[in-house]
Amino acid sequence: MRLDARDLEILRVLAREGRITKAALAERVGLSPTPCWERLKKLEEAGIVEGYRAEIALRKLGPHVTVFMAAELADHTAARFRQFEDEIRRRDEITACWALGGGFDYILQIVTRDIDAYQRLVDELLEARIGLARYFTYVVTKPVKGAGVPPLELIAGLT
Length: 159
Description:
Layout: H1 5-16, H2 22-29, H3 33-45, H4 58-61, E1 65-73, H5 78-90, E2 94-99, E3 106-112, H6 115-127, E4 132-139, H7 152-156
Antiparallel strand pairs: 1-3, 1-4, 2-3
Helix pairs in contact: 1-2, 2-3
């Protein structure tokens, strides 16, 4: 699907305000409601808009810790990568995971109640025999910037 500046503006608004009404979205991007809705449906059908989520203030729910773990696997076979990734997908505490090129194999974002809970998770991952050879723990001391809106024009090649 070829995107234009109007499509990117729809995406930008939705990324910041996922609960915006269709009428308000149309007004914000300078379209009448029907053409705006048609563009949005095309973006959803093309899989560009994958879903809508709420940002949750975890600090208001209770104590927690966010940890980034750099993980290195013992061997680099397709089967081992699949096994590791399947296990990671099953763990709710692992809120995000990215495969990396160069250096470490994966970086995981993990949210647990405390460091003890994090260590129990690591122990379970090691006992699961999914090929985790080494890991490095980085505890988040304060959030500085969260997941923002990516530079859509650059990615879409419109600049």
